[in-house]
Amino acid sequence: MNPAQPYRQIDAAEAERLIRSERVRVLDVRSTEEFTTLGHIPGALLLPVDLIASAPATLQAPDEPILVCCEHGVRSAFAAGLLARAGFAGVINLAGGMSTWRGARDHSPAGPASRIGPSSWLLDNADLLPRDGPLLDLACGTGRHALLLSAAGFRVRAIDRDEGKIGRLRDLARRLDLATDAAVVDLEGPDLDLGRTDYAAILVFNYLQRSLFPALREALRPGGVLIYETFTTAQAACGHPTNPEYLLEPGELRRLAQPLEILRHREGEADGQHSAAVVARRTG
After folding, report:
1. For residues 29 and 77, what is the distance between their CA atoms, to the nearest angstrom?
2. Residues contacting residue 22 through CB under 8 Å, at least 6 positions apart
3. Residue 78: inside a domain, yes or no?
4. CA contacts within 13 A on the Cβ side of 6
5. Is the peptide bond before 214 cis (omega within 30 degrees of 0)?
6. I need a surface site. Which of 31, 108, 138, 143 has the fewest CB within 10 A?
7. Is 163 helix (H, G, I), strand (E, B) or coil?
8. Judgement on whether residues 89 and 139 belong to the same structural domain of the protein
């Protein structure tokens, strides 16, 4: 391996041998349309290259080999370099890309099991994110949204009660030279203080603590937006989570967000899970 290029390059024939041996994961960084219309390697994960900053927080097992591919090997080289900088040890780029691939192709659309990265609710509503102030990513986990938005130039504070996840996020942000402010915060503690009119936007995904909503509203500056998505009671039939304390009743999220102005909302099945989502703005 060239020290200046911290990932391997292999051709399609060697890639096919690796895949047959089941010793490598495949990450396709083309567009969703290319993934389906041009076909993809069976079993490949999909994450378009413009979202690649979220990959280190969502891909598991950084020591296992991962083959990155695009159509001609250019986008995948960029993605492979980012994963290598993030500490992934077995990164491989498919030289020449899918244009050289002669193996099996799957033309089925990307399903929930093959899509990784940020929530579609965040992507669909990124046009409403203010650029003139800090964002808070609450219950951020390992930072799939915090890393993506930091890479896009937003000022992001990311908080979670899990020290291990925050430690992982700090390490990834350092490796990728991103100025993400990550902190361990007990979100259920009696002394929790999110501040007053501190944030231009607050993001909450897959987390529900009903008592937090007044603090979320107070922490938004006038004109700031809350982007929120989490599970509904219908998700219990899918196996996780099942505790009603963490599941929204029908229509409940819009009620909890009041008196913020509801700009957009969604409720039902999306991204392979049953959820409710809102974008709500503080008007005063």
Report:
1. 10
2. none
3. yes
4. 12
5. no
6. 108
7. helix
8. no
CA dist 189 and 36 (Å) reads 46
Q: Which of 100, 131, 156 is the last residue of a domain?
A: 100
**Range of 255's domain?**
120-281
For residue 157, what is the domain's CATH number? Answer: 3.40.50.150
120: number of Cβ within 10 Å: 14
At 229, give phi and psi (nearest 5°). Answer: -150, 130
Q: Give the total residue count for the chain.
A: 284
Residue owning tokens 């083959």: 67
- Distance, in Å, from the CA atom of 222 to the CA atom of 282, rounded to the nearest integer, reads 5
The whole-angstrom separation of Cα 212 and Cα 259 is 14
**Residue 107, in any domain of the structure:** no
Tell whether the torsion through CA atoms of 74, 76, 79 and 85 is positive or negative: negative
Give the chain's domain count: 2
Residue with tokens 């008592």: 211
Same domain, yes or no: 167 and 90: no
Q: Strands 273-281, 261-270: parallel, antiparallel or unpaired by DSSP?
A: antiparallel
Same domain, residue pair 93 and 180? no
CATH number at residue 87: 3.40.250.10
Q: Where are the alpha helices (DSSP H) in 153-195?
A: 163-175
pLDDT tens digits for range 200-230: 999 999 999 999 999 999 999 999 999 999 9
Residues of the chain with pLDDT under 70: 1-4
Q: What pTM value is reported for the model?
A: 0.94
Question: Do the domain assignments include residue 3?
Answer: no
- pLDDT at position 3: 53
